[in-house]
Write a structure and sequence with these properties.
Elements (H helix, E strand, L loop, with lengths): L26 H14 L37 H81 L2 H13 L9
Length: about 180
C-alpha cells in the first residue's frame, strides 16, 4: 500500500510540465536552447538588455589637502593611500587618452565620408552632363533627319523628272554619313 508523503505535491491540472535539464556544451547549442525557450511562447516579449554605460572615471578633486610624495613616509600606512591615488590618476589619464583617440578616429571617418560623398556627386554630375550631351546630340540628329526629309520632299515635287534622274545618280555617288552614339 502506498503511503502519501508530506513533501509530495499533487500535480496542478493547468500547470506547466517540468522541463528536463539540458546543459549546453557549445555556444551554438546554448543559443539554440535560448531560441527554443523564446519560441515556446511567441506572444511574450523577448528581453532585450540595454547597452551598458561606458565607464567614466571620477573627476579629480578640486583641492587636495594631503599632498604627498612617492616616498610617503617609509613604513607608514600612507604609502597604500598614495599608491591608490596614483593608480586612479593613471586610469583617468588612460581614459582621457582613449577618448581623444576615439574622437580623432570619428572625425577622420566623418571627413572621409564627406570626401566620398563629394567625389560621388562630382562623378554623378560628370555623367549627367555626358548623358545630356548625348541626348542633345540625338535630338539634333533627329531634327536634321526630319528636315532633310521635308526638304527632299519639297524639292522632288517642284522639280521635273529629268532632275530626279540626275539626283538619283548623284545620291548613289555620295558617301553615306553616320551618326555617332547609336
Amino acid at each position: 500500500m502506498a503511503v502519501p508523503q508530506k513533501d509530495a505535491k499533487p500535480a496542478k491540472p493547468g500547470g506547466k510540465e517540468p522541463q528536463p535539464l539540458i546543459i549546453a556544451k557549445t555556444p551554438a547549442e546554448e543559443q539554440r536552447l535560448k531560441l527554443e525557450r523564446l519560441m515556446r511562447n511567441p506572444d511574450k516579449p523577448a528581453p532585450i538588455p540595454e547597452r551598458p554605460k561606458e565607464w567614466n572615471p571620477r573627476a579629480p578633486p578640486e583641492f587636495v589637502r594631503d599632498v604627498m610624495g612617492s616616498s610617503a613616509g617609509a613604513g607608514s600606512g600612507e604609502f597604500h593611500v598614495y599608491r591608490h591615488l596614483r593608480r586612479r590618476e593613471y586610469q583617468r589619464q588612460d581614459f582621457l587618452d582613449r577618448m581623444s583617440e576615439k574622437q580623432k578616429l570619428d572625425e577622420e571617418y566623418l571627413d572621409k565620408v564627406e570626401e566620398n560623398q563629394k567625389a560621388a556627386e562630382a562623378r554623378t554630375a560628370k555623367r549627367r552632363k555626358k548623358r545630356d550631351k548625348l541626348k542633345l546630340k540625338k535630338e539634333m540628329a533627329k531634327k536634321a533627319k526630319v528636315e532633310s526629309k521635308e526638304d527632299s520632299g519639297k524639292e522632288e515635287s517642284s522639280e521635273s523628272d529629268d532632275n530626279s534622274v540626275e539626283r538619283e545618280a548623284e545620291d548613289d555617288a555620295e558617301v553615306p554619313s553616320f551618326v555617332m552614339g547609336k
